[in-house]
Amino acid sequence: MSKEITIAIDGWSSCGKSTLAKALAKELDYIYVDTGAMYRGVALYAMRQNWISRNHSDVNRIIAALPKIKIKFSNKGGGEADLCLNGENVEKEIRTIEVSNVVSLISRIKEVRDYLVKQQRILGIGGGVVMDGRDIGSVVFPLAELKLFVTADPEIRAQRRYDELIAKGDKVTLDEVRANLQARDEMDSNREESPLIQTEDAIVLDNSNLTPAEQLEKALALVNKIRKV
Predict the structure, then answer these.
(1) Is the pLDDT of residue 229 over 60?
(2) Are the C-beta atoms of 219 and 207 separated by less than 8 Å?
(3) Beta carbons within 8 Å of 99's beta carbon, 6+ residues apart
(4) Could you tell me if 147 and 199 are in contact, meaning their C-beta atoms sit under 8 angstroms apart?
(5) Which residues have C-beta within 8 Å of that of residue 55, sequence separation ≥ 6?
(6) In 111-213, at which residue ranges do the beta strands (DSSP E only) sit?
(7) Which of 162-171, 189-198, 213-222: highest mean pLDDT?
(8) Ramachandran assignment for 2, one of left (phi > 0), alpha (psi -120 to 50 degrees), beta (any other)
(9) Which backbone phi and psi does 77 adopt, to 5 degrees?
């Protein structure tokens, strides 16, 4: 007999958190929640209003607009879900380098974090959920039964992200991707509100030299150890 648990996955940008979370959700038949996509949705909304860029953000307008920003996930099955912003599927748009360049600015705004954390907690009520992000184990679900902190060598992360964007048809250089990741790491770990940290009870999973299948195997072993009652 096993029990439904909450799995919190935190870690650096482009380190494979979402890949692992989706695979776990599919294997366990759990709900998958990509919290990073939620912040990207807010970032896209603000970009469309010309309220944010790499050098500027109109924080007051962004905060005032939060009640108008409706974010939901459209379940595609098998651990996959697209983000919908006010009823529009924006999954492709939120994954661009342009959104990546401003999303850390959005995530630094306390009111935005408070607004989205409330929604994330509702999605995770009752367990049976895999959630990945930057503050899941530390803020959203501090009592999660399993906390994983995923990491990888920075150069490997940059190459993975570059390959992903090129495969989607984006015109970027490896140097651009590397600079973007370095900037996001700096902001994520040093922001005042809910910085990215490795909690004391989190298990570190370095996937620098692991295939997705090997990473999943290690994570499932940890899940199964906890679920046995």
Answers:
(1) no
(2) no
(3) 40, 43, 44, 47, 93
(4) yes
(5) none
(6) 129-133, 146-151, 203-206
(7) 213-222
(8) beta
(9) 90, 160
Whole-angstrom distance, CA of residue 22 vs CA of residue 18: 6
Do the Cβ atoms of 196 and 10 come closer than 8 Å?
A: yes
- Position 178 scores a pLDDT of 96
- Pairing relation of β-strands 71-77 and 80-85? antiparallel
43-80: per-residue pLDDT in tens? 999 999 999 998 889 999 999 999 999 998 887 766 67
Averaged pLDDT, 123-137? 88
Task: Provide the token pair at 161.
Answer: 């992200």
Structure tokens at 38: 């939620």
d(CA 147, CA 5) in angstroms, rounded, equals: 11
User: What's the confidence (pLDDT) of residue 1?
Assistant: 47
How far apart are alpha carbons 46 and 26 in whole angstroms? Answer: 32
Q: pTM to 2 decimals?
A: 0.80
Q: Reduce the DSSP state of residue 3 to 3 states and report it.
A: coil
Cα 192 to Cα 15, 143, 201: the distances in Å are 23, 22, 22
